[in-house]
Amino acid sequence: MTLDELLSKTPEPYRPIVRRYGPLLLEWTMDEVWSFIEDLVKGRTKEAWERVMEALSDDMTAFLAAGTALIEDWDAENTANRARMAMQRTAILAILQVLLAACLALVGL
Length: 109
What we know:
Helix 3 (30-41) runs antiparallel to helix 4 (45-56) and helix 4 (45-56) runs antiparallel to helix 5 (61-106). Helix content is 82%, strand content 0%. The protein starts with a helix and ends with a helix. The protein is mostly helical. The chain has helices spanning 3-8, 15-27, 30-41, 45-56, 61-106. The chain is elongated and about 75 Å long.
């Protein structure tokens, strides 16, 4: 497949991305493509991103480092958000239990 053929199968909004990374994808073997797809499907976005950046060129080292730092920041924020959501669920459950007790008292149970 050529880059033009790949672009013709790509929706217009995504064509700039395919123009940038398409030549790399066309160089990959089918095993590399499937490995990349598997990383994305299994949620291993960091590994998928690293695979793309490493394949581009050695000049991308700084770009890869910036991408890695961004992913690490997102991971840290996600961890903090998980903790906040767990606390919110605990608080909501406590409120619901009090409301349940009040409702049971209202109906005489």
